[in-house]
Design brief:
heterodimer, A: about 400 residues, mainly alpha, Ammonium transporter fold, two-stranded antiparallel sheet, 2 strands, B: about 110 residues, alpha+beta, Alpha-Beta Plaits, four-stranded antiparallel sheet, 2 helices, about 35% strand, elongated
């Protein structure tokens, strides 16, 4: 191949970022684990952990090739890079010219892991573990890989339109949020919802999970610069700022609305901010990140209230936070992007380029549409073959004992 | 006055609690307990090593009632706690000498 020089600083940052993004999935497990009832705590952490195990395996076997391999019709990569064939320690000029190709590959693996893990919050406390594993395998293969290719793969059709998505607002968050909505609706409500109390069993776990997500997200966003330097720093700063503002916004709105300043609310708002800044993080400045964070806190809070009113059981609000937060972020990228921040990006609406909204909207709509349709097909197939839902008595006893014969808390 | 102590499945506590409250029986005390009955427990494993758990987590609901309400209370608890399998639990009934409401000093049935 070529003989591009490897930049040690860039490589160090990308490998560190990969480890940071990995820790987000156990962080998410604590976030979700704290939000569910005690009898389901292990089960939901297990589902998150299983994403690391299974998706890592298929990513090396064929996932990376499907997402980033040589383009087939703008839709997905072919299997030339299956088993990491040809994905070596030389840089790949098209994706990241200054780091070993495998560093880029393993960084991307962490995104492929956390995306299906996000969906788990919507289907919490009622899905069979066996059915979940099958769903995970199929969804990672037929939903995540193609959409990652559209948006980030060389030759991908959304990328070719000029849509800006720095770190995965569409690929990760809208994609997971849309699948979450379908999963929650198709699986139906948890038994006893609205009748029995379903209180989060460990709020400090929620805070611990939020902290790990926030910490790991610096790798997610600033690592997406794929280089160490100015752009990574800018992404780091706007990520932090938007998150703080979104947490503050949710805290204040929920306090005014419900009368108490909720710790879970502050954490949820922070996660909404992380989601919303994700696509914009490499293209916007600090003041724009304040606007994006404030919007995330407000829009996601409204989305969750809407869900509560409608009563569909997106148990841990994946649709409201990731679907709506991701959509706001993708559109906000089209509003606030400026070339002064990232010359490889584009100017947005506020910088005289209203046309940037068009590819942003197309990217958003295509992701929602594809994810909803294919997720629905996969769920129907699994339901008609092995069944999705646990038995009512297992659901009553809890998934920890019902599905895993392993309790979270033994005293 | 009678004290009714029902040891039931944990997952049935909300059903029983709601049914009692619908019947006007608001005052209850609920404990998480562990115990052994005829249900033999279950097997957990730790890195492949099997461990039998024979003290099973149950919930105990305790309430003090007027003698006349006993049949109704038993019916409500049984209807809402039964699965038909071993391990549904037991109800114990015992006499109560007196009840005192701390705030007012009321005694006996008035204080239930």
């Amino acid at each position: 191949m070529n003989n591009l020089p490897i930049d040690t600083g860039d490589t160090a940052w990308l490998l560190a970022s990969s480890a940071l993004v990995l820790i987000m999935t156990p962080g998410l497990a604590f976030f979700y684990g704290g939000l569910v009832r005690k009898k389901n705590a292990n089960a939901i952490i297990m589902q998150c952990f299983a994403c690391i195990l299974l998706v890592s395996t298929i990513w090396v076997l064929y996932g990376y090739s499907m997402a980033f391999g040589p383009d087939v019709g703008g839709f997905m990569g072919n299997l030339d890079w299956a088993g990491l064939n040809g994905v070596g320690l030389e840089p790949n000029e098209g994706y990241a010219a200054t780091v070993p190709h495998q560093a880029f590959m393993i960084f991307q693996a962490m995104f492929a892991i956390i995306t299906p893990a996000l969906i788990i919050g919507a289907i919490a406390d009622r899905m069979k573990f066996s059915a979940f594993l099958v769903f995970l395998l199929l969804w990672a293969t037929f939903v995540y890989n193609p959409i990652a290719h559209w948006v980030w793969g060389i030759g991908g059709w959304v990328r070719a339109l000029g849509a800006l998505d720095f770190a995965g607002g569409t690929v990760v968050h809208i994609n997971a949020g849309a699948a979450a909505l379908v999963g929650a609706l198709y699986l139906g409500k948890r038994r006893g919802l609205g009748k029995d109390p379903m209180l989060p069993h460990n709020v400090p776990f929620v805070v611990l999970g939020t902290a790990l997500l926030w910490f790991g997200w610096f790798g997610f966003n600033a690592g997406s610069a794929l280089a160490s330097g100015g752009l990574a720093t800018s992404a780091f700063v706007v990520t932090h700022t938007a998150t703080a503002v979104a947490g503050l916004t949710w805290l204040i709105i929920s306090w005014l609305h419900k009368g108490n300043p909720s710790l879970i609310g502050a954490c949820t708002g922070a996660v909404a901010g992380l989601v919303a800044i994700t696509p914009a993080s490499g293209f916007v400045g600090p003041l724009a990140s304040i606007a994006i964070g404030a919007g995330a806190g407000a829009f996601c809070y409204a989305a969750v209230q809407y869900k509560n009113k409608k009563g569909f059981d997106d148990a841990l609000d994946v649709w409201g936070i990731h679907g709506i937060g991701g959509t706001w972020g993708a559109l906000a990228t089209g509003i606030f992007a400026e070339k002064a921040i990232n010359a490889a990006g584009n100017n947005g609406l506020l910088f005289g380029n209203a046309a940037q909204m068009i590819p942003q909207i197309i990217g958003v709509a295509a992701t929602w549409g594809y994810s909803i349709v294919v997720t629905f097909i996969l769920l129907v197939i699994i339901n008609k073959t092995i069944g999705l839902r646990v038995k009512p008595e297992e659901e009553a006893v809890g998934l920890d004992l019902g599905q895993h014969a392993e309790e979270a808390y033994v005293d | 006055m009678l004290k009714v102590e029902a040891v039931i499945r944990q997952e049935k506590v909300n059903d029983v609690k709601n049914a009692l409250s619908n019947a006007g029986l608001l005052g209850i005390t609920v404990y998480n307990v562990k115990g052994r009955g005829r249900q033999k427990g279950y097997v957990l494993n730790f890195r492949g090593r099997e461990m039998r758990v024979d003290l099973i987590a149950k919930t105990k609901i305790e309430l003090v009632i007027d003698d006349k309400a006993l049949d109704e209370v038993i019916k409500i608890i049984r209807e809402n706690a039964v699965t038909g399998n071993i391990g549904d639990g037991k109800i114990f009934v015992s006499p109560v000498l007196d009840v005192i409401r701390i705030r007012t000093g009321d005694r006996g049935k008035e204080a239930i």
